[in-house]
Design goal:
This protein is mostly beta strands. It has one domain. Helices cover 9% and strands 35% of the residues. It contains four helices and 13 strands. The strands form three sheets. The chain has a nine-stranded mixed β-barrel with strand order 3-4-5-6-7-8-11-12-13. A hairpin with a 2-residue loop joins strand 4 and strand 5. It is globular, with a radius of gyration of 19 Å. The relative contact order is 0.22.
Length: 251
Amino acid sequence: MGRGRLVCACWLAAGVVVLCLTPARTQAQRGGGAPTARAGAAVDITGTWVSVISDDWRRRMVVPRKGDYAGTPLTPAARRIADTWDPARDEAAGEQCKGYGAPAVMRLPGRLRVTWQDDTTIRMELEAGSQIRLLRFGAGPSPSEASWQGYSVAAWQYPGVRLNPGREGRLRVVTSGLRAGYLVKNGVPYSASTTMTEYFHRLEAPTGESWLRVVSEVRDPENLREPYVLIAHFKKLPDGAAFNPEPCSVG
């Protein structure tokens, strides 16, 4: 696509909202050998963002009924697991966070606060379930113990020419080391063998609003017949916006 052409990204949010993004005309070549991930950021995703639920509302804003997994490429074994979901059992077992693992939490309603923990680690705090994700740049040993948010390895991906530093490129994150949980809070399962690849894109609207688009590909050889692609959108809030973490719940 040529530099001067208009790029449009569209989605539904209380009606049809069209965001048209125009690349900046000032050209800046990518410098070589940035000393840290923070200094060489391809795009700025820091700040406080709020989720905009524009698709699959019935399964993202409320807990759907048992057996509502249409559109999810589940294996027969996974459907049997979902059909036996019992929220009271999860509550009694102290498993209220099974629907807040990394493959699910980015699609839940609430705010997302993104900061740099250090020069090689992005910290993502979510109101939903009071969850915290750490996105680490560079290879490193995975922890021996699985967790809800797993172990996430991040890398910047740059365009061929950086037209607008801090607004071009994207963030790629690969997550493994997950504790088995739910893709949807009504018991749709993912296993500890699950891996997830995410792409974070920052988009600028003509109105001056900033948006974050997160595209996730979930792979689970035990419960999914094929890769499951999910999309979430977040709108940036003003600096100092409220942030109120909430505990995990089965309902």
